[in-house]
Amino acid sequence: RVLPDADAQYVDTGSSALVRLRQPGTLELDFYVSGATDPQIKVDWMASRDSGSQSMRGINALIELAERIGSTRITADAARSVTRDGRITMNGYKMWPKLGFDGPLPKRIIDQLPPDLAGARTVLDLYDTPAGRRYWIENGDTYNAAFDLAPNSRSRRVLANIKAKLARRSRPAS
Predict the structure, then answer these.
(1) How far apart are CA 126 and CA 139, in angstroms?
(2) Sign of CA pseudo-dihedral 126, 136, 98, 130
(3) pLDDT greater at residue 101 or residue 52
(4) Residues 158-171: pLDDT tens digits?
(5) Which one, of 54, 47, 158, lies nearest residue 102 by Cα?
(6) Dihedral of the CA atoms 31, 36, 40, 44 (nearest 10)?
(7) How many CB atoms lie within 10 A of CB 21?
(8) SS3 call for 14
């Protein structure tokens, strides 16, 4: 089992299997596993109720499973949805890059980048600088995200950095 203390549900959808993991009150994770010869994992939904440790558990579990089945990447639709009153109801567009998920910038975004960010072509290119992160959070949109499972990939380096930040934050002050 990927998360031993989670309630798990498996649904055969024909061409793939939907896996639903639930830890009531802390983590919800839905993903598809498909492809016998070219195994793929696509995240459908992830929600956590804390500042990062549960998200890390979910991502670590996905990486472990993907490596176990021989997948080279994990994909997700990094969605953005905003209500009429301006409330963001889906924030995957800004959450997934923090965890190392990259993808091409939509052409509309590339065409509108300010001069100091004009060289960016992927979401993680923007996340390389504070100005780029701010720009993406304010102007970003839904994108096709992927986590590259290759050793020392950009995705793994970004994830390692966020894990280190979370570890420093959780240490008691001396």
Answers:
(1) 11
(2) positive
(3) 101
(4) 999 988 988 887 77
(5) 158
(6) -20
(7) 22
(8) coil
How big is the CA angle at 120 (ends 55 and 60), to the nearest 5 degrees? Answer: 20
Q: Look up tokens 């499972």; give the residue.
A: 149
Mean pLDDT of 57-74: 86
> What are the structure tokens assigned to 163, written together?
């894990």
Average pLDDT score over the chain: 85
Q: If DSSP states are collapsed to H, E and C, what string results for the chain?
A: CCCCCCEEEEEECCCEEEEEEEECCCEEEEEEEECCCCCEEEEEEEEECCCCHHHHHHHHHHHHHHHHHCCCEEEEEECEEECCCCCEEEEHHHHHHHCCCECECCHHHHHHCCHHHCCCCEHHHHHCCHHHHHHHHHHCCCEEEEEECCCCCHHHHHHHHHHHHHHHHHCCCC
Tokens of 115: 């001069």
